[in-house]
């Protein structure tokens, strides 16, 4: 018997509800087909699905703008955003896999790929925007992706070793007493919090001139620093068997998977497409003015 989430146990007959901590925001349905409950799954699926619908609704116009501008940077990140968003939506939809007999390996693999795609975006955005020299944007982007890929590849390899080599259930909501899981996640979030904290330290110090002047980027870093710090705190509490730590960690996971990609889009991509609309309107206005459409206004 394998205990998952502290509230459900898996037997040969399937998931069976057991006694344990009853998280009010994660429990609605007592169905044996649900791991967390209706509200938990809705909080994950609904924002992720709406974001995909939003991207799809604007996909045609955005692709035209990308083709018009021919920005290798935006093309690369727009493609990565779509890839990560689709993987994340699949992860949100298939929550039941983590407490379904025979689906544990598939759930672990899906979780690995979904979280790695989002982490790749997170690291590469920071690495790219911290650079000052864009002499060759395509070359800079390729170098950024290569470095980010090395970090994410190492992270992926370590997670595989812990999960399949040492049996650490990183992506299953196991009982709070599993110290191995919380040790891994605490170290992971400590590194991310340290990286964001270092950027903020330099930005608000006398050495801030060494960093590129991008206000939106530093607002993003502040939000990510606060988020990773909260998750770090939650992992620490969970590691010492505090029930609030597990609740806070689960809440942070829901917020990350449902809100991070829309937040990334609004911060770094939305203005690009809006700016293109303005540029196109200006171009049309110039063409009409050259053709004499507005001559009557001056008579």
Task: List strands and helices in order, with pairings.
Elements: E1 2-4, E2 8-11, E3 14-17, H1 38-69, H2 72-93, H3 104-129, H4 137-165, H5 179-203, H6 215-239, H7 243-268, H8 270-290
Antiparallel strand pairs: 1-2, 2-3
Brief description of this entry?
Helix content is 69%, strand content 4%.
Feature tags:
disordered N terminus, mainly alpha, 299 residues, single chain, Rhopdopsin 7-helix transmembrane proteins
Describe the model:
Helix content is 69%, strand content 4%. With 299 residues, it is mainly alpha-helical. It has a three-stranded antiparallel β-sheet with strand order 1-2-3, with no helix packed on it. β1 (2-4) and β2 (8-11) form a beta hairpin. The chain has a single domain (37-273), classed as Rhopdopsin 7-helix transmembrane proteins (Up-down Bundle).
Q: State the separation between the terminal residues, measured CA to CA.
A: 87 Å
Q: How many strand units?
A: 3
What can be said about the biggest beta sheet? 3 strands, antiparallel
Number of helical stretches of at least 4 residues: 8
- Based on CA atoms alone, the radius of gyration comes out at 23 Å
CATH-assigned fold name: Rhopdopsin 7-helix transmembrane proteins
On the 0 to 100 scale, the average pLDDT is 80
Number of domains: 1
Low-confidence stretches: 1-34, 280-285, 291-299
Strand pairing plus helix content: what structural class?
mainly alpha
Q: Strands of the largest sheet, in order across it? A: 1-2-3
Strand share of the residues?
A: under 5%
CATH class: Mainly Alpha
CATH architecture, by name, is Up-down Bundle
What is the helix content? 55-70%
Order of helices and strands: EEEHHHHHHHH
User: What form results from the Cα inertia axes?
Assistant: globular
Family: Belongs to the UPF0359 family.
Protein name: Transmembrane protein adipocyte-associated 1 homolog
Membrane topology: Multi-pass membrane protein
Main location: membrane
